[in-house]
């Protein structure tokens, strides 16, 4: 309680000096800091507003209505006109026509008349007669033809020794004996199979047919004739035919022809 009473008493000289120093030094510094922050915020807001609402729309308007039309005009109209009409029509076309008429065509005629006809053609003919044809004949006679004969002989010998003779020996000593043995085996097997089939299948079938099936079929035929064919024939002759005749006469008598 005594401490609270002492602290709530009148301020001392040191406290008043501290308060004065705080008011004179710290408060202006704080006010200056707040002013600087406020100035920065205001400046940023002004610059942002200027950029968003004034400079950007102005730039868009200038780009869409001034720079872009001017660029299209320069690119499509002025540049195309310069290239097509001025540069190509007034400069390049006359220059190219002049070069073609007075430089290239005379140069071509000079090359054709002088270089080709007077130098290249005679030189080519002389080289063909004196160099190429004799060299080709000599090369064919002394190099290519003997070399071809040697290569052909080597190929013939290689085919004879590597293909013809092995195939001939294979046929003579292996394939032909195997074929003969196979042919004899097939003949013998065919005869044995024929005998076995005749003994095991054909003879029993003939015996069964002659001793069993033929009498049974004959008995069935007799029974069928007696029990079915003859009654049906007698019924058709003695019953059905007269009934058809009577029915035809009755219908003719009632309805007329």
UniProtKB/TrEMBL annotation:
By what name is this protein known?
Uncharacterized protein
Q: Sorted alphabetically, which keywords does the UniProt record give?
A: Membrane, Transmembrane, Transmembrane helix
Q: Which organism is it from?
A: Nocardia bovistercoris
Q: Which residues cross the membrane?
A: 16-33, 45-66, 86-107, 146-167, 188-209, 215-236
Q: Which domain of life is it from?
A: Bacteria
